[in-house]
Each structure stands twice: as C-alpha cells, then as structure tokens.
Amino acid sequence: MLVVTTENIRGYQVEQVLGHVFGVVVRSRGIGGNITAAFRSLAGGEIKEYTEMLEDARKSAIDRMVQNAHNMGANAVVMARFDSSEVGQTMSEVVAYGTAVVVREE
Predict the structure, then answer these.
(1) Cβ neighbours, 10 Å, residue 34
(2) Of 7, 15, 40, 57, which one has the greatest count of Cβ atoms within 10 A?
(3) Domain coordinates in residue numbering, the chain
(4) How far is 82 from 51, CA to CA, in rounded Å?
(5) pLDDT class for 40, splitting at 50, 70, 90?
(6) Pairing relation of β-strands 76-87 and 2-3?
(7) Looking at the predicted structure, is the pLDDT value of residue 82 above 70?
C-alpha cells in the first residue's frame, strides 16, 4: 500500500477515488509512566515516555488507516495527514487520515 502526503504519486495514475479513510488510536501512559514523566517535566527536556507512546500511536493509526483503505479496495492513500489531541488529562488521540484511491503504474 502506497501512502503519500501528496495529491498525486509520480509515475502512477489515479484510476478511482474511493473516499475518505482514517485510523484512530487513543493511548494513555500507565500510572508509573505518568509519575516518571511528571518528574522529568520538572527538569525540562524531552519526556521519552510520552515520545514513545506517541510514536507507537502514530504507527498504529497508520496501520489502521491502511487496513481501512485495503478493506475499501484501495492500493494507495494520497493526501495522508496526522492530527492529535488530548482526551482528558492523561490520554492522547492520534488520527491518521487521507483519501483512499486505486492507482496504476504509468
């Protein structure tokens, strides 16, 4: 499955636009991770526990988006984007979204 942030894929022709596709993940650190992160935030700098959580959430969101596109019959996703937000004080939502398409090599 090709996933690109552009509207077109060089060397490919879009044959069919199947529609909007997305993958969403909501994650939270456990109590131990939140306590560790709170102490790290006092000193400043990167909070590795949250960085790892968000990296994993992005990967999962992409995987879910790709699976949804595959289920629609797509072989590519164009205009792929991410969005994220906080849900409550301890959870993060990550959404990967784009347009599912069928492409063929030129």
Answers:
(1) 14
(2) 57
(3) 2-28+54-105
(4) 15
(5) low
(6) parallel
(7) yes
Considering the chain, what is the average pLDDT of its residues? 88
Going 61 to 65 to 66 to 70, the CA torsion angle's sign is positive
pLDDT for residue 46: 75
Of 100, 64, 98, nearest to 81 (Cα)? 98
Give residue 36's pLDDT. Answer: 63
